[in-house]
Structure formats: C-alpha cells, structure tokens
C-alpha cells in the first residue's frame, strides 16, 4: 500500500513527496548554491529517507506539488517538512506559496530544513516571510567561522555565506516558534562547542545531527 502510494508521487522521475517516520517530506528541489563535503547528493545515488530523489529534465511546479499534497490527508502528519535533495531556499517563493496553501486547509506543523542562505539567494530579507507560515526551521550551521564554512561547504557565496546565515537565523528566531541550528556529529568536539556558541548567540537552539553515510 505504501509503495503504491509512493509511486504515484513520482514526478520528473523523482519522488516529489514521501513519508519518513510519521512525517511527510516535500522534495522541493535538487539545486543548491553549496557543495558540502558531506552532502549526500555528492556521496549517494539519489537516496536520503527515500529512493529516487533526483529529478530528471526539470522539477515539479508549485502547482504540481500542491496537486500531490492535496491527495493526502495532511492532518495525519505531525510535521510537513520542506527539504529537498537540494536546498529549498532555491525555490523560496514556491515554498512560501505552498505553506500558504497548506495553512488554508487547517492547522499543520510546517518545518523547513535549510542551509540558511535564503537572504543571499533571494536578494532580500527572506526570513521575514516565515512569519505565520512556518512553525520550525532547521538550519545547517556546520562551521563556526566564515573560513571554516567555506572550506567545508564550498558555497558559491564564499565568505559571505556564514554571516548571511546568521543574519537569516537572527530574523527567523523573531518570526518562527522553533529555530535550531545543526552541525554534523563527525566534527571535532571543540568545533561543535564553538558552533553551539554561535547558534546560541543568534538565539537559536543547537542540535548535533548524525552523519548519514552513503
Ligand atoms: S547545503 Fe545541503 S543540499 Fe546543499 S550541498 Fe550542503 S548538504 Fe548538500
């Protein structure tokens, strides 16, 4: 039954929405301005919490995502999570549009998993858009300094990336009930502690996430 339901969610050759645990995940995009050393997009064949996450020949429109979401009983899920096999902020306006659509169907807990680069991607203070739309934001911090971030995440924004992530986060904490910054467990302890201090300095919680090997 689950397979049957999941197969119907294939768009452009990829799983556009899928269940993982109790939650519903939206695979918004495969694009990302970073090339993190630990990114599964570099290190796996298209899987994360589901298989077939690479889109072929385009990505679904926001309307196509919404058509898929409408087929589900969204009230069943404790969380609806915008993630990607890529960075959801690359489709920021579409994600916000979908949040509005979901909100119109009732009370749902909506989370966005992001690298926090939405301000640089959109060219505006995008974190303001989260107000009233999103219940939780999980932001990958990954390093405590701009140089460390650049060395690990190879962002197209270079040394501007980490300061922009911290500005995004400091606005998000004013507009979203739950904001956390995360780092992977394989980092040295001292760097994890430095990341914790950076996260707390902008008002976010800090969470150490397990590294997902290939
Ligand atoms: S920010 Fe996320 S999607 Fe982008 S390269 Fe890093 S791990 Fe991959």
Features of this protein?
two-stranded antiparallel ribbon; seven-stranded mixed beta sheet; 34% helix; globular; disordered N terminus; TIM Barrel; 8 helices; 214 residues; 17% strand; alpha/beta; binds iron/sulfur cluster; 9 strands
Q: Overview of this structure, please?
A:
The chain is α/β, with parallel strands linked by helices. It has a single domain, classed as TIM Barrel (Alpha-Beta Barrel), CATH 3.20.20. The protein is built from 8 helices and 9 strands. The strands form 2 sheets. It has a 7-stranded mixed beta sheet. The protein has a two-stranded antiparallel ribbon with strand order 1-2. The radius of gyration is 17 Å and the shape is globular.
What is the share of helical residues?
25-40%
Bound molecules: iron/sulfur cluster
Query: Which structural class do the helices and strands define?
Result: alpha/beta
Q: For the largest beta sheet, what order do the strands appear in spatially?
A: 3-4-5-6-7-8-9
Question: What string, H for helix and E for strand, traces the elements in order?
Answer: HEEEEHHEHEHEHHEHE
Rg, rounded, reads 17 Å
Strand content: 15-25%
Tell me the CATH superfamily.
Aldolase class I
Number of domains: 1
CATH class: Alpha Beta
Runs in which pLDDT lies below 50 for 5 or more consecutive residues are 1-7
CATH architecture: Alpha-Beta Barrel
| Major sheet summary line | 7 strands, mixed
Mean model confidence by pLDDT: 92
N→C terminal distance: 27 Å
Based on Cα principal axes, name the global outline.
globular
Number of helices, counting only DSSP H or I runs of 4 residues or more: 8
Provide the CATH topology: TIM Barrel
């Amino acid at each position: 039954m689950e397979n049957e339901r999941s197969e119907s969610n294939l768009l452009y050759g990829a799983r556009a929405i899928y269940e993982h645990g109790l939650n519903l995940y939206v695979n918004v995009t495969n694009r990302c301005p970073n090339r993190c050393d630990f990114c599964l997009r570099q290190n796996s064949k298209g899987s994360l919490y589901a298989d077939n996450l690479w889109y072929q020949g385009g990505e679904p429109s926001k309307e196509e995502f919404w058509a898929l979401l409408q087929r589900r009983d969204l009230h069943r899920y404790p969380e609806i999570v915008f993630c990607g096999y890529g960075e959801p902020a690359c489709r920021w306006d579409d994600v916000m549009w979908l949040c509005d659509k979901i909100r119109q169907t009732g009370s749902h807990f909506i989370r966005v998993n992001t690298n926090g680069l939405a301000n640089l991607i959109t060219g505006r203070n995008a974190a303001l858009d989260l107000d009233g739309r999103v219940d939780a934001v999980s932001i990958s911090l990954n390093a405590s300094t701009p140089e460390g971030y650049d060395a690990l995440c190879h962002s197209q924004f270079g040394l501007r990336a980490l300061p922009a992530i911290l500005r995004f986060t400091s606005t998000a904490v004013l507009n979203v009930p739950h904001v956390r910054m995360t780092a992977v467990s394989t980092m040295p302890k001292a760097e994890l502690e430095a990341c914790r201090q950076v996260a707390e300095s902008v008002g976010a919680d800090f969470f150490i996430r397990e590294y997902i090997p290939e």
